[in-house]
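Quick look at the format.
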Amino acid sequence: MMDGTAGLRGRPVPDEGMLDDVAAMNENDPGGMLRHTAAAGAQVRETAALAAEANLGVLADEGRPRAVVIAGIGTAARTGEVLATVAGPRCPVPVIQHRSAGVPGWVGAADVVIAVSASGRSPEALGAAEAAARRGARLVAVGAPDSQLQSVAEGVRAPFVPVPRRAPARASLWALTVPVLLAARALGLVKVNEADLAETAARLDAEADRCRPSAESFVNPAKSLALGLAGSVPIVWGSSPLATVAARRFGDTLSANARYPVVAGALGEAGRGRVGLLDGVFGGLGESSRDIFADPEDEATGTRLRLVLLRDGGLNAEDDTDEPLVVEERRADAVQTLAERRGVRCDVVTAEGGSALERLASLTAVPDFASIYLALAHGLDPMAVPAITEMKELSNQ
């Protein structure tokens, strides 16, 4: 019987000491979310090899498509955002994310549909794959081996990239993303080479080492970020399209892993409205009433904003189709100044790397770990989400 609190456990006030107790963290992470997240680099290498065996080259036989549709939901849909961003504004065909079952009405034989599902059984991906097959569109499927999605793909002799299911979809971002990028490369839409993949995997490995559970909070950037966010309402803004993908990804993981409400999106768009949050009751208005000399331990606990700014810095200095770097940088500097003036604390994660893919990895790795550490500090299991299970049960009654 469900009473609305089934499976609930944890503590409202975070226990900072928990993050320096590896044994306690392991006990509260029975599904191994930390371990799965640390395997992101291995995911890149493994799925690149699996995609190479999937004969994606057949996609190019019929030439460049009219449009590419990435069909899936949740993390699967996020892979479409990654593709659109890596392809950039010069991409010769539209790249469209589709989050509901079926495909848009205009999809036909001139188009490519990439159906993505970690489980291989999501209604959205399955519906899209079946609709693509009916309409004669070229189909690529990415998902768990021996799944319904594989059956649909094999039924129409479409390429299928089998992605081993070892973790929830949200801990499999790179396993799902790499096949999508390589399918787009086969179509001539992105320039992602083996060196880019190797450097991205190496970057993810290096960040996993910096964020390892045995690294204490004062040297671990993910634990430090998690403790800074504890008890706050996080706002996560990305300075560029690439950084915005990472910001939305952080919103996903903070919500699912740590159960925190989050405002996430593009800094450029936020500047037209949401930046006003810094003036509000959770921002400057609340901060102005705090005693800056009070002992934080004695201070009444009120919810406050915490800004996380993901700064790209970009690789597009000579690309006249994108926003000038100087505008992006000036806007990022401005919001940091604004936050400081309002007394709203701000964390900054800065991209590193020589390719768009590696830079994205540098912006997602530390936040991914931070969302898990924040869950563990609250005594939450970062993998099992009772509300999701209960929602499915209620929806199926």
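Next, a different chain entirely:
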Amino acid sequence: MEREMLRQFMQLYNNQDVLSNLINSGLNSRYSNSELHCIEAIGKLERPNGVQLATLLSMTRGAVTKLAKRLLQDGLIERYALSDNKKEIYYRLTAIGEALFKEHEVAHTKWEERDIAFLSSVPIKEQQVVLEFLQKFNNYLQAKIQEESL
């Protein structure tokens, strides 16, 4: 049973990835989901820094640094510091990054509408069981991320 559940999760991830690639052609297809979610986070947070991004994206700071490096190289984001605190580094979107952010927002809305239509067809009791399981599994994975980050 456990291996079948893991196989179903893997198939779910793969199907979501394939579907995302089919729907998100053009500029979006050049970037991974992690990179797009980093763009999204930078676009939504008021003054994002590495710690905030790592927390929001459930990633290590090292992983966020690698993402930011690629996005900086591609001219999607830029780094800056406040005039009264040169130690703290923040990120913001460039005009190209802002265009990608908006493109991603449209795709994200389509994804939500598509999958909520399916989830609405699932009885509430089944949704509650699945939701509780997913919360437990995500908490387990978050704890493993913390362990691996030490």
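The first strand starts at residue 77 and ends at 82.

See the schema section for token definitions.
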